[in-house]
Specification:
heterodimer; A: alpha+beta; Ubiquitin-like (UB roll); 2 domains; five-stranded mixed β-sheet; four-stranded antiparallel β-sheet; 11 strands; B: alpha/beta; Glutaredoxin; Rossmann fold; 5 domains; 25 helices; 40% helix
Chain lengths: 253, 618
């Protein structure tokens, strides 16, 4: 189907969202809680766009989140209208007060003309850069073990293992920290151990070069999940790449 | 015994009706949560014991019902007698012996227990003569306060399940849908969405597995319509649900009740059990091919779980956070299956619509809001309690005719409708007719039916702050505008109440109202600015008084008011000294008193008790 984005006809497919169609067409829409690997949640509200559905009055529009709104025939989308810019700016002002040091928030806010939030900055935050986008919890839930979750609500909302206590469910894989857009999750790697979410894990050295691979728990989990031998995972990425390259060499074409 | 077919149901119904006719006298002891709190449980127990002692056989000709809420909660415990209609208020266990002797045995009224009309100062014998009841149209509350909520035979004998039998025996699901569409019934939970339309879009869904959900998570401060209906007429609600399930083709249903409503859960649970026992719920209902069962899901006490998509997540065992509704619940609801979710009051209207016809239902009300609406009338009003009126009744009629107006000595200032996300309307809007659209146009909303009356001792900035605080605590925190914006809004309002407000505060508040309305994910956030925007719209002067004049003339914001005694008016009656919590009022009897401003905490207790208007708010 064709939809109209900023006056330009764009191809879209049934079942996909405005964000997907727009990005494919090269139209930039800012997001902070969107991650390709997991379902969208619509938490950050930055991807708001102004839409008009087929059959609506000419002057009737609505703000929706592009990451969740399904495309439909005859949809007209404005990604940068004054109303969209105003709402995004107001959201960024609020996010900047929450996490003034978070880099992507600062960069986006600056794009919308906000250098300093008009609201007082939050103090005493446990995870100051955390904007509660929920990517970490969604990633952990969907791809790994579901060790962390959102807890509490409203102003007290926070992310972490249940009751904020160290949990055996966490395997220290860093899926959460590496997908975090604001680097909000503290991780301490010493070379032989890794500490995250209140637990310290042993890092398994690479069988070939000795560099740390994953945590023991992570490898155990992978073994259980794939049914392969632990040795397959006790090799670091660099050595694995090298080994694969050499294997390709041996193939006679 | 399971009813095997419709013929058997007719026999059972005839028996139940005959049994009802044999009852010559009924004693209705209100055992709604309000009256129970006032001690009606003890009254009921004492009555039973006294009837037993006197050998008045409860089963023959005399029936005592522990009923649901009778509405006039302020005056509980309430006891009513049928058919005489004699109505007693504030009954105590110690009154019971006299009641049995005079009223039950001799049909004689006991004057001191009768209601006293506030205008005429006359005692009124029957409840029909009380203005509070006289002006009501009780459709959704038709059984509440009359029937024993646990007694299924009494429900059947009073015409219960005839609508269900009619639907299953003589109507196709399509015909049931058509009747509800003709009734133009709009959802009573707050959104006011056309129930027939919702049902139809679910009935048209491609998937066969469908769910029906009843929302009993009523969480608005001061609202208790749904609780009362679930407690007082559980069969009515469930009958409505079974009919709805038949219309949309659902096999499984849920009633989501909040944890704080234990009595409702008990009565619903008992009703579900009794209905299953008779074959009115479960497999092959009334011997037809239609199967449907209901489970009770108990909420954990989160206000946001009253939002339909959050409620469904909660039933699924997930965190109760709303989802975007770009795809409706009727297409992808509970467990991602087509789902119809309606409120308690919506369902209880269904049997009535089927029995009397959609056209009959639609003949009452306004152009776009049909039928009646139950309101919990609370706050600064003489008769607090539960009232039900036709759509289109004016606020004035509800507050002044039924509610009896604000208590003596004070004047009406505003009425808050629609729960925490509703708005406050001033006296100039008292003639507004309550229906979904006019209330929204006026800047408030119907909501689920909370109605809080405020007098001139209410500070509107403080009211906005109160509701905003409620919403800050109840926001799920998923989306940025609601989580972050409401916190900032509350801070700004608190600063205004504490005397640190500037005009810049108002600008920021208006900006936050915009981002909340446009940017929030769910209806909670989208409407969360309503308390602030509606008070700003109608009571802007009061905000400016706080900001520019550093004064709160309602005498609520402690930093901005001071209480002083007018020497000329003070008679030295000492009443104020007896209520002052900090003992900061000094003076001899019969000589003017004085307030020690250093020790005064501006609670206003002295102002509220003074009969001589001798205390001024400065």
């Amino acid at each position: 189907m064709k939809i109209l984005i900023n006056g330009r006809a764009v191809t879209a497919f049934n079942g996909e969202t405005v964000l997907t169609a727009a990005r494919r067409a090269g139209v930039e829409i800012p997001t902070l809680c969107h991650h390709e690997a997991v379902e969208d949640s619509g938490a950050c509200r930055l991807c708001m766009v102004e839409i008009r559905e087929a059959g609506w009055d000419e002057d009737w529009t609505k703000l929706v989140t592009a990451c969740l709104f399904p495309v439909q025939e005859g949809l007209v989308v404005q990604t940068d209208s004054p109303e969209v810019r105003r709402t995004r700016k107001e959201i960024l002002e609020l996010l900047l007060a929450r996490s003034p040091e978070a880099e992507p928030v600062r960069v986006l806010a600056a794009e919308y003309g906000v250098e300093l939030s008009p609201y007082p900055e939050r103090e005493d935050a446990e995870l100051p850069n955390c904007i509660l986008c929920g990517i970490c919890t969604r990633v952990c839930q969907a791809l790994v073990t579901g060790a962390i979750t959102m807890s509490e609500r409203g102003p007290d909302k926070t992310v972490g293992p249940p009751f904020g206590e160290a949990t055996d469910v966490c395997i220290g894989c860093l899926a959460c920290a590496s997908s975090c857009p604001t680097d909000a999750i503290p991780v301490e790697d010493t070379g032989t151990t890794r500490t995250i979410w209140g637990r310290t894990f042993d890092l398994v050295p690479c069988a070939i070069c000795g560099a740390p691979t994953g945590t023991r728990d992570q490898i155990d989990w992978l073994v259980k999940k794939t049914g392969r031998a632990a040795a397959d995972f006790e090799i670091c990425v660099a050595c694995k790449t090298k080994a694969t390259g050499e294997a390709w060499h041996r193939i006679s074409w | 015994m399971k009813i095997a077919n419709l013929k058997e149901f007719e026999v059972l119904r005839a028996d139940a009706e005959a049994a009802q006719k044999k009852i010559r006298k009924k004693i209705l002891v209100c055992c709604g949560t309000g009256c129970l709190a006032a001690g009606s449980g003890k009254v009921a127990a004492a009555l039973r014991a006294e009837l037993d002692r006197k050998g008045l056989d409860v089963d023959v000709g005399l029936k005592m019902n522990e009923t649901g809420c009778r509405g006039l909660c302020e005056l509980g415990p309430l006891v009513t007698f049928e058919p005489s209609g004699i109505f007693y208020k504030s009954v105590k266990a110690s009154d019971v012996a006299e009641i049995v002797e005079k009223t039950i045995e001799r049909d004689e009224a006991i004057p001191r227990l009768l209601y006293r009309d506030k205008a005429s100062k006359q005692r009124v014998e029957t409840y029909e003569e009380i203005p509070f009841y006289k002006s009501q149209t009780r459709w959704a509350l038709r059984n509440v306060g009359l029937l024993d909520p646990k007694d299924i035979t009494e429900y059947i004998g009073s015409g219960g399940f005839t609508a269900l039998a009619k639907a299953l025996a003589t109507m196709t699901p399509e015909e049931v849908l058509g009747e509800v569409e003709t009734a133009k019934l709009r959802g009573r939970g707050g959104g006011g969405f056309d129930a027939g339309r919702k049902w139809r879009s679910c009935a048209n869904a491609k998937e066969d597995e469908r769910y029906l959900v009843c929302n009993g998570d009523e969480g608005d401060p001061g609202a208790f319509m749904d609780r009362t209906i679930m407690e007082g007429d559980p069969y009515g609600v469930i009958e409505g649900m079974v009919i709805a399930a038949y219309a949309i083709g659902a096999k499984e249903g849920f009633i989501y009740v909040r944890q704080e409503y234990p009595l409702a859960v008990r009565h619903l649970d008992a009703a579900l059990g009794n209905m299953r026992g008779l074959g009115l719920l479960g497999e092959t209902i009334l011997g037809t091919e239609f199967c449907f069962d209901i489970r009770i899901a108990r909420g954990g006490g989160a206000f946001v779980c009253g939002e339909s998509s959050a409620l469904m997540r909660s039933i699924e065992g997930k965190v109760g956070e709303p989802r975007a509704k770009y795809i409706h619940g009727t297409a992808k609801g509970l467990y991602d299956k087509p789902t119809v979710l309606n409120n308690v009051e919506t369902f209880v209207n269904i049997p009535l619509i089927l029995e009397k016809g959609g056209a009959w239902f639609a003949s009452t009300g306004t152009e776009r809001s049909k039928g009646t609406k139950a309101f919990s009338l609370v706050g600064k009003v003489q008769n607090t309690g539960l009232v039900e009126v036709p759509m289109g009744t004016s606020l004035r009629e509800i507050i002044f005719d039924i509610g009896g107006g604000v208590p003596k000595g004070r004047t009406f200032k505003a009425v808050q409708t629609g729960g925490p996300s509703g708005g406050c309307l001033p006296a100039s809007h008292l003639d507004t007719r309550v229906d979904f659209d006019t209330l929204t146009e006026a800047g408030s909303m119907m909501g689920s039916g909370g109605m809080i009356v405020m007098d001139d001792r209410t500070c509107m900035v403080d009211v906005a702050r109160y509701f905003t605080k409620f919403l800050v605590n109840e926001s799920c925190g998923k989306c940025v505008p609601c989580r972050e914006g409401l916190q900032q809004m509350l801070r700004l309002l608190t600063e205004i109440c504490e005397g640190a407000g500037t005009l810049r505060h108002l600008e920021q508040i208006e900006g936050l109202a915009h981002v909340l309305e446009k940017g929030s994910l769910c209806a909670l956030g989208k409407s969360a600015a309503n308390p602030v925007t509606s008070t700003l719209r109608y009571f802007r002067d009061e905000y400016l008084e706080h900001i520019e004049g550093k004064k709160c003339s309602a005498g609520v914001c402690r930093a901005l008011c001071r209480f002083e005694i007018d020497e000329e008016k003070c008679t030295g009656c000492t009443l104020c000294t007896s209520v002052c919590p900090t003992a900061c009022i000094a003076g001899e009897k019969k000589t003017p008193h004085e307030i020690d401003q250093e020790a005064c905490i501006q609670c206003g207790s002295c102002f509220d008790v003074c009969s001589f208007n001798a205390i001024r708010i400065l």
